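Lab meeting, item 3. Inverse folding demo.
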């Protein structure tokens, strides 16, 4: 079995994804859905994938769970959770068996 361990999907009609609007991301500023993955995965011999957050929002996390619930090829989800709001994070962490991990972006800024 071949697993793509880091798959991003997004729907720009559903969510804004501000980072996609940057000029340097023009080549990928379009919707990438499950059908895009499925056609390429089949050609490459990939059986399953781990879906990884495309944005730090609850809405993106919800969109990933929706994709995962409809496609058994999604082996797991690495989702954003609001770690600064423990009750909300706990509710999100306990809601779906497909959740494989959480991610939080940390930035170091130099003066």
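The presenter then showed the designed sequence:
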């Amino acid at each position: 079995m071949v697993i793509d361990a880091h798959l991003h999907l997004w729907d720009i009609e559903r969510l804004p994804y501000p980072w996609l609007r940057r000029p340097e991301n023009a080549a990928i500023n379009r919707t990438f859905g499950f059908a895009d993955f499925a056609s390429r995965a089949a050609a490459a011999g990939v059986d399953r994938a781990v879906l990884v957050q495309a944005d730090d929002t609850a809405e993106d996390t919800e969109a990933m769970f929706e994709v995962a619930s409809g496609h058994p090829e999604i082996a797991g989800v690495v989702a954003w959770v609001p770690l600064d709001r423990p009750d909300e994070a706990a509710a999100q962490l306990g809601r779906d068996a497909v959740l494989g991990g959480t991610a939080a972006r940390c930035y170091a800024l130099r003066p």
